[in-house]
Design a protein that fits this description.
The complex is a heterodimer of chains A (495) and B (484). Chain A contains 16 helices and 13 strands. Chain A is an alpha/beta fold. Chain A has two domains: 2-254, Alpha-Beta Complex (Amidase signature (AS) enzymes); 256-313 and 381-491, Amidase signature (AS) domain (Amidase signature (AS) enzymes, Alpha-Beta Complex), CATH 3.90.1300. With 484 residues, chain B is an alpha+beta fold. The radius of gyration of chain B is 29 Å and the shape is elongated. The chains are: A alpha/beta (495), B alpha+beta (484). The A-B interface holds A 39-40, 46, 48, 53, 56, 58-60, 62, 210-215, 217-219, 245-249, 323-324, 326-327, 329-333, 335-337, 349, 351, 371, 374-376, 379, 383 and B 39, 42-51, 78, 80, 82, 84, 87-90, 142, 262, 264-266, 269-272. Chain B: It comes from Ogataea polymorpha. Chain B: Keywords: ATP-binding, Ligase, Mitochondrion, Nucleotide-binding, Protein biosynthesis.
Chain lengths: 495, 484
């Protein structure tokens, strides 16, 4: 079933064909999972869905995949995504688009080809990896990769799966795995979870190690967990929620909060800026139902709140992520690894041609935007302005949330426990419709997820009907409380 | 009027690199390329930097020795540019909040005829790049062993007004780093790299790069100063900031202000700030610093009664200094005069002739003392003493053999056999009648020439003084008109 669905929905960038030995005594022994293809593993290529890393095999393992393997979970494949995480549709991939399994797709859009490579020790070279070795000391790895059909057709009613962790969301939604690992920089776990009606949890910034996560924008990147089963999300989170000395932004052990006890009266804030205007009718109806149901419960208190900086958070977010991305992607020059054009003219160094050919259009657009924001012309007016908006937004969150804040221990005894808002303003757009809009219009889909990313807060998408979901967020560090309340709301069965 | 400021990069001698755990092999040139590189050093996707504390400590020691104030908070920034040996596409440096600021270094009577203070603007910690090697045409190789080695960059105020001051500062800076044990101090290996900022009569500032040695620095400044003076005389002073390179003979334009690189500095989004409790740690670090270069010079000059030149040689190498002190003390105990010349001239000279570097182990101190005692006791001539020294450093196994036995073995024992001396001097005088005539005719200094010939003819067996006396005796000229 897994390859069959992948032909239609193009969920994976690589599907593992080896049955690797597993720890059957681990706490996740009976589970299978999919891993977003921007997290490095030794047993499969890691491509970020980009031509520039199309054949790249990492010589080391990410902390996330190592911890999951240690607990016996089975990795079935690496999932397709928007190139380097840049997008919210999963249409921007070198391996072709990922489609939304909630909607019918009649014909196949890709073929699957078998590939293989060999690994040994810590040394990885193109020769060792992709050309057959005589010696038996190399480990053989076989996998399937998608190849886009030249004349594929997407059904007219097909809607986008969301992104950038679209492949991970689709793998869960299509019941191919028990859970999937995605990454969330500005909503990349929550939005596709919303569009595919699953839970998608983005923990507090710094809680899950980023060692082995190929960065898009490090000050915002987080590893997230997606599943139909909220209890499994909690279980997987408790395994990944560990300090890692390899990651300089990993939260220290003493600062981690494990408490999940909810107060007898739960105060939930509803940001006016995120809930009233601009919601499509389907979303508005579900939203109204949810709020009504919550008001019926005596120990839930709802408050309408206002965070003035929310209106500026989307432009601030795009300024910061593109700046960091332009810096992070500077290393892909074809000299040490990845795609290299092999030809150049005297006018243009080889790395320039390599980068022109190796990156997709959206990635190049964001590198240019970011380079401008960091230039001597744009630094103060763009980068510093955006940094200031971010600081102000964090202050506003701190002033309304109860806390204590995980790092600065800021407390507000009369503050709120949670913030609740829709994850997306509308149903996922039709693929045909999405392909017509401008890049800037497409950035608007991140409006409701970005603020929590800028502040590093834990947030989860709670599915509520087909391709509709709501976000529950808490103060920095209160991840277990967010998961606990999400579970309680799930048990209310408002669908 | 000439105004100069310096930007000096120095590699720190930490055991590990700046942000990874690979070995720092900075001072070793014979390490095979790309063998001391970790995943981070070649910027593999998904790796992250982690600051090691040792380079930070070495930078703090340097900052204190240069009288800087240490920042409570300093941060790391990314400086972007593309180059084959820059694996990240940016260098991690400290642009906005450097580790230390506002220092100075005094050039004293030991450095310059007239004392001067050079102010230091700031010191920052940063990564070194890899090295590009051009071996054949149209192809370059990159060695990432140097990638991510810790550097400090020190920027002075434009306080220099002469080449002599620049030269004295560089020497003093090198000595200071060596004295602290934070850097090898060598320009030749690239452990220290100097860029010069220069302006004449307050015209635009010129930066000169690619200056591999002190003599290149001096020559480039002189060249650039003359070039600009000529332009000023012509009424066409330079009006634009530009960067120039040194090709060994002249400075050449590399780039002007228009095509200056925009480095797009950005605060590093994942490296935490360095937060220091300055009041606590500064006294603790200060307590670990050795006496300053000036204090040590003063002590050495007074205690050992040696020349400034020799004191500077000792100060450039901690091991050599310790070696000298031990040698000196043992010589004093054995009644041998100050061995400084034997160390700085003969031993270091022999080593450089043999293409060897000084290490304590090249000659055991006790063996050196034994040789000097034997010399003092008249067992050999000074010439043969030098030969034996050269032999001992090139044949370390013979350092176990007692000196008298070696003298016998190589027939180097000083002899005073009058008969042989007579024969040699007679022969030389006979073969050089015109020289003899010149000496007799009132050119007594020519006697040295004959002494040299006699030494050679007797293979150094006779003391020169003996030969001199014998020749004088035969020539019947007055003593004390010549000097050996």
């Amino acid at each position: 079933m897994l390859p069959k669905l992948s032909l239609k929905y193009n969920i994976f960038t690589s599907i593992a064909l080896n049955n690797l030995e597993r720890n059957s005594a681990g706490s996740l022994a009976a589970t299978s999972y999919a891993l977003k293809d921007n997290i490095v593993t030794r047993d499969a290529p890691t491509t970020c869905s980009s031509k520039i890393l199309a054949n790249y095999v990492s010589p080391f393992e990410s902390t996330v995949s190592r911890l999951l393997t240690e607990e016996g979970s089975q990795l079935v494949g690496k999932t397709n995504m928007d190139e380097f995480g840049m997008g919210n549709s999963s249409l921007n991939s070198h391996f072709g688009p990922t489609l939304n399994p909630l909607y019918e797709q009649k014909s196949d859009i890709v073929d699957l080809r078998e590939r293989e490579f060999w690994i040994r020790g810590e040394k990885i070279t193109q020769d060792i990896t992709f050309e057959k070795q005589d010696t038996g000391s190399y480990m053989h790895r076989k996998y399937l990769v998608p190849e886009v059909k030249s004349d594929y057709e997407i059904d007219p009613e097909m809607r986008i799966v969301g992104g950038s962790s679209g492949g991970s969301a689709a793998a869960v939604a299509a019941d191919l795995v028990d859970y999937a690992i995605g990454t969330d920089t500005g909503g990349s776990v929550r939005l596709p979870s919303c569009y595919t009606s699953i839970f998608g949890f983005k923990p507090s910034y710094g809680r899950i190690s980023r060692w082995g996560l190929i960065p898009y924008a490090q000050s915002l990147d987080t590893v997230g967990i997606m599943s139909k089963n909220i209890k499994l999300i909690r279980k997987v989170f408790s395994i990944l929620d560990k300090h890692d000395s390899s990651d300089p932004t990993s939260i220290s052990e003493e600062n981690r909060i494990y408490d999940d006890k909810l107060d007898s009266v739960i105060k939930i804030g509803i940001p006016a800026e995120m809930s009233l205007d601009g919601l499509d009718s389907e979303v508005k109806e579900k939203w109204r139902n949810l709020l009504k149901r919550l008001l019926e419960i005596p120990n839930f208190n709802l408050f309408l709140i206002s965070l003035p900086s929310l209106s500026k958070s989307l432009p601030a977010y795009y300024t910061l992520v593109t700046s960091e991305a332009s810096s992070n992607l500077a290393r892909y020059d074809g000299i040490r690894y990845g795609y290299r054009t092999g030809e150049y003219r005297s006018l243009e160094p080889e790395f320039a041609k390599t980068r022109s050919e190796g990156f997709g259009a959206e990635v190049k657009r964001r590198i240019i935007l970011g380079s401008y924001s960091l230039s001597s012309y744009g630094y103060n007016s763009h980068f510093m302005n955006a940094t200031n908006v971010r600081s102000k937004l964090i202050q506003e969150f701190n002033s309304i949330l109860k806390g204590p804040h995980m790092l600065n221990k800021h407390c507000n005894p009369n503050g709120l426990d949670f913030i609740l808002c829709p994850t997306a303003t509308s149903l996922p757009p039709l693929v045909s419709q999405y392909q017509k809009i401008t890049p800037v219009e497409s950035y608007m889909n991140d409006m409701l997820t970005v603020p929590f990313s800028l502040a590093g807060l834990p947030a989860i998408n709670i599915p509520l009907g087909r391709s509709i979901g709501f976000q529950l967020a808490g103060q920095l560090g209160h991840d277990y409380k967010v998961l606990k309340l999400a579970q309680m709301m799930d048990e209310l069965h408002i669908r | 009027m000439l105004k100069i400021g310096l930007e000096i990069h120095a590699q720190l001698k930490s055991s590990r690199k700046l942000f990874s755990l690979s070995k720092n092999t900075t001072s070793l040139l014979d390490v095979h390329p790309n063998t001391t590189t970790s995943f981070f050093d070649v910027s593999l996707p998904g790796t992250q930097p982690k600051l090691n504390k040792e380079p930070l400590l070495l930078a703090l020691k340097t900052a204190l020795a240069l009288n800087c104030s240490i920042s409570e908070v300093s941060t790391f920034d990314r400086k972007h540019y593309f180059y084959g040996d820059q694996p990240l596409g940016y260098q991690i440096t400290q642009h906005y909040q450097p580790i230390a600021r506002n220092g100075y270094l005094n050039l004293t009577k030991y450095d310059l005829p007239k004392e001067k203070t050079i102010r230091i603007e700031q010191i920052q910690i940063e990564q070194d790049t890899g090295r590009t090697l051009y071996k054949e045409k149209g192809r370059s190789y990159v060695d990432f062993n140097r990638s991510n080695i810790p550097l400090i960059e020190m920027v002075t105020k434009p306080d220099f007004s002469s080449v002599e001051e620049v030269r004295a500062f560089i020497k003093k800076f090198q000595q200071t780093l060596v004295n602290l044990g934070v850097c090898t101090g060598e320009l030749e290996t690239g452990a220290i790299r100097v860029d010069v900022n220069l302006s004449v009569d307050n015209n635009s500032r010129i930066e000169i790069k690619n200056l591999p040695t002190t003599s290149a620095i001096v020559a480039a400044i002189r060249y650039e100063y003359k070039r600009q003076c000529r332009l000023i005389e012509k009424g066409e002073p330079i009006t634009e900031v530009e960067t120039r390179g040194w090709d060994g003979k002249k400075t050449q334009k590399l780039r002007s202000k228009e095509d200056a690189i925009d480095y797009r500095y950005m605060p590093d989004p994942e490296l935490p700030a360095i937060r220091l409790k300055v009041k606590d740690i500064v006294p603790k670090i200060r307590a670990t610093l050795p006496p300053s270069v000036d204090e040590q010079l003063q002590e050495v000059l007074q205690k050992y009664d040696i020349k400034l030149r020799d004191a500077n040689i000792l100060l450039a190498d901690n091991e050599l200094m310790d070696y000298y002190k031990e040698l000196y003390n043992k010589c004093v105990q054995s009644g041998v005069p100050n061995p400084i010349n034997w160390l700085t001239h003969e031993l270091l000279g022999s080593l450089s002739k043999s293409n060897m570097a000084f290490e304590k182990s090249v000659l055991e101190v006790d063996k050196f003392v034994e040789l000097l005692v034997a010399l003092q006791d008249g067992l050999m001539t000074k010439t043969n003493g030098k030969l034996l020294l050269m032999h001992l450093i090139n044949n370390p196994q013979d350092q176990k053999v007692p000196i008298p036995q070696l003298l016998d073995e190589f027939d180097l024992t000083k002899t005073d056999e009058t008969e042989l001396l007579d024969q040699v001097t007679d022969k030389v005088m006979f073969e050089n009648p015109s020289v003899v005539e010149q000496i007799m005719g009132g050119k007594p200094k020519k006697l040295n020439y004959l002494i040299g010939l006699c030494m050679r003819a007797s293979e150094g067996k006779f003391d020169p003084k003996l030969i001199e006396d014998k020749l004088k005796e035969k020539l019947s000229i007055l003593p004390n008109t010549t000097k050996t």
